[in-house]
Amino acid sequence: MRVTVCQIANEAEALAAAWAGLCEHLAGSGSDLVVLPEMPFAPWLAASPEVDRQQWSAAVAAHRGWCERLAELGVATVLGSRPVERPEPRNRAFAWNATDGLVDLHDKAYLPDEAGFWEATWYQRGRPEYELTTVATRVGESARVGVLLCTEMWFLEHARAYGRAGAHIVAVPRATPGSTLDKWIAGGRTAAVVSGAYCLSAAPYNAPGRGADLGGGAWVIDPEGEVLALTTPEEPFATCEIDLARAVAAKASYPRYVPEAEA
Fold first, then answer.
1. Domain ranges of the chain
2. Quick check: pTM over 0.90?
């Protein structure tokens, strides 16, 4: 299976060029699946502690419009998240494919609330309900994928549960500052190891001093924690071939085979 991760511009005026670049990259990649950043199609509202519901509604509308263009990427599956207004403002994970369109997964359940990331101030947390979704490849195979939205990755019991359920991939759409990238990569490597799955993450990027502090750094990490690809401002897209059989075999090796402790 071929998978693509990306860091794309968060500034509205730069988004169209970033999208065109991603489409161009994918045209020759043979990719089956793309992971997009967390809420990528509007400026990062949680940078400010001042909630503006009109801005939130505008972000919802922007994501609705861009999600109607996901077919332009030319891949079987797209994973990401988007803001929603009903039943209340939330950050909702989704999977898209050409047959079913946009399929809702879960609402982000673990919300930070600090400078630059006032998420619990801007929207409501969802229930911690994590289920695998099945995605198709170009050659007619299928992969089992679990999604963790940014901060959810640090609650490793969910990555472990995905692994026990047979996940091939744990996808982590996120929005994070550049100064913390090493810490996030360490978390992604750990999520891959404890789940015995490939960890794929994508994140928005703003050049220093322009817009919210969003540092990019998308990755592909194998089930043993090896970083196979990491994006940069100069190379914002990365496509890798992954071996689903490796994720299956990893479940029988350390530390995944160790049984759960009894209460």
1. 2-250
2. yes
